[in-house]
Amino acid sequence: MNKTVKNVAQALEGIESGMTIMLGGFGLCGIPENAIKQLVKMGVNNLTCISNNAGVDDYGLGLLLQGRQIKKMISSYVGENDTFERQMLSGELEVDLIPQGSLAERCRAAGAGIPAFFTPAGYGTEVAEGKEIRVFNGKPHLLETALYADFAIVKAWKGDAAGNLVFKGTAMNFNPMMAMAGKITIAEVEEIVPLGTLDPNHIHTPGIFVQRIFQGEVFEKRIEQRTVRKRN
Amino acid sequence: MNKTVKNVAQALEGIESGMTIMLGGFGLCGIPENAIKQLVKMGVNNLTCISNNAGVDDYGLGLLLQGRQIKKMISSYVGENDTFERQMLSGELEVDLIPQGSLAERCRAAGAGIPAFFTPAGYGTEVAEGKEIRVFNGKPHLLETALYADFAIVKAWKGDAAGNLVFKGTAMNFNPMMAMAGKITIAEVEEIVPLGTLDPNHIHTPGIFVQRIFQGEVFEKRIEQRTVRKRN
Amino acid sequence: MGLDKIGIAKRIAQELQDGWYVNLGIGIPTLVANYVPAGMSVEFQSENGVLGMGPFPFEGEEDADLINAGKQTITAKAGASFFDSATSFAMIRGQHVQLTVLGAMEVSQNGDIANWKIPGRMVKGMGGAMDLVASAENIIVAMMHSNKIGESKLLKTCTLPLTGVGCVKKIVTELAVLEIKNGAFHLVERAPGVSVEEIIQKTEGTLIVPDIVPEMVLA
Amino acid sequence: MGLDKIGIAKRIAQELQDGWYVNLGIGIPTLVANYVPAGMSVEFQSENGVLGMGPFPFEGEEDADLINAGKQTITAKAGASFFDSATSFAMIRGQHVQLTVLGAMEVSQNGDIANWKIPGRMVKGMGGAMDLVASAENIIVAMMHSNKIGESKLLKTCTLPLTGVGCVKKIVTELAVLEIKNGAFHLVERAPGVSVEEIIQKTEGTLIVPDIVPEMVLA
Q1: How much is the ipTM here?
Q2: Other Cβ atoms closer than 10 A to B91
Q3: Which of A118, C83, C157, D46 is 20 to 30 A from residue D101's alpha carbon, by CA?
Q4: How many pairs of residues across A and C have Cβ atoms under 8 Å apart?
């Protein structure tokens, strides 16, 4: 099974305005930056984007916000982005804020055929409004439902033609669950390696969850908060 | 944090008659064989064992069945064990049979703080009796609850003093979820390697889920169905 | 008369499609892997945690840590992956597996299947079968048309405890290929040399027989 | 008067216990990692997917693929592990993390906490805070006693949208250590040189003051 496509344009074929798209990453770490640039180029709009964060003003999902391509964001944390806050407070951008653990689990649930589950996160807060509450082990929990997407776009370190993915460090974050949840999952990788190169014991996302894979052209991999210590 | 204990006896301290114990493995693959032998030696009984299978007559959990140490088995498949079938049909052994995917997910749920979730598995069968049914996406689902255990005993290939575990091949199976679900999780490993040896990108079970780790003395690793092909 | 186990496996292999992920149950279904049409890329998932199963190992190369769901020693192909049971059933429940082939003790004309328990006599457990049949879009049952004492296994209503309801779409037996729709078995093909009359006689459930019932073509 | 941020972090570090896994929020809580008592083994979990965080990297060794939940570049110690967000919150929700330290905009005397939203003015999102406060057995809030315009942040009732209810057990501010029980703040320690009167004056919620309020001892 060869899922390799030759470039980002081919990888993103079929994405249309109005669709729901999941994008991996935490902050700017592990985001599919080549695919995001391509979405800008394609000019699709009215998108519902499911992503933990919304990038910064001029990088990552911030680029799609600047171009007003996003109708609705489903995220857990959207600080660090003034465009975002402005569009949200002015009401031109719909926002659904979800506790980070619930966001991760709701993506996984979609991919795992689990339509709903109970979690304690958000009980007693506005997140619980309209949701079923049930007590387990003496503690109230909310019923949260699976989050599906037309396309999931994830970023991995290495991948192969079978769609197997390996992530590096904390660039893994939401990528594996989103890969599971997309009707069509597109993987952007830094390097496509020959089949058989990846140790089958070390594969983070088995190829079954991935429909298309491409090697990104340029990885800026911008750092949001460069914190260092001096050498003695 | 050094979670290494010097031998299986020390690892299993605190396990008492009447407790609920999870044991990893699928068939005879990836079972904590040293720990099982120690349970025989300890003579604890009235155990509730949660394990996908029940071993064979003279190996794995079959040893505990022979000694009538098990009061109740919670499993998905128990073929290949005559002692088991006899004790079950005679009524001396309580058995709760659970669809394999629900078993895996119920262990994970316990470890993940998710008290219950919906699954389609078992709808319309005796597994659904007494369970809440709800339709999602036009399809009926059952509400399944988390499965907890006093102790979880898992088997890994390699581990370190921090409790990080790496599994090999299909010996992984139920071990990672059970490691998450135990109030106390004991890891039996073939080799304890120095801290820092395991690549943090390749750890299957992060040490936070493991309270004690020991290197097993002897690994028979019996094969249930030896199927081979001839060389040309 | 009719197909042997290999024949059934060969016929089911014709149902495979390029790019599919397939879960094969214990017994006849396992044999399907040997007859993937040339030039077709199909990956086999085993619910104990492997994708990309290869053939049995060469003698002396068996690895106790590498088995399939039938507990048989196997190998892994280039591009294979190992994963835990929760992830494995995420693949199954989440419908990432395109086809499930499994055996059955009984199938009813509305697609119910029973294959895990004979009350008071035999209880092996459902293993992964309940998850598989509740989740898969495509389920093919591979079985003999009749049981050991000659009773039809294609019934109006199952008599044994169910594994799943209304889920079986297609059945391949030693005698025929049948589809289930609108609450009836539909005869699609007959095995070489098997008469329509024999199939009618050995099918207890409602059987719809078209005017022409082609004979299977096996390579 | 009172502690600086480092002082607050040092005082919280005294609450650590050997063998604990700890999640530190953004801001003051992050500083706690620098003051783990000697000889004590504590591992830090960051909800973006790392256990066993080490110090910041040396200049020039920053790795964009290795950050903490505050998006700061970090390092990993020997024995560290990386994992996905679902596994990370399994650790948190499943109570495998023994202590959570986080900041707050408001805390009420029954342990409610608000720290994610000011309606109409600021909405950053709750990030992992709602999962953390709903799950953790031990939650310590690290914050200033008053907000920028001098209003108490220790209230009878929170005015801002809540992050969690009845979950905060302990608060460390620049002025004091307080415990929450039976619907009231209990003064446990005062910062060096801070008077009980000042703490009373700056606490809007019900404050129980014992006869003797020891001064914090900071190394």
Answers
A1: 0.97
A2: 8
A3: A118
A4: 65
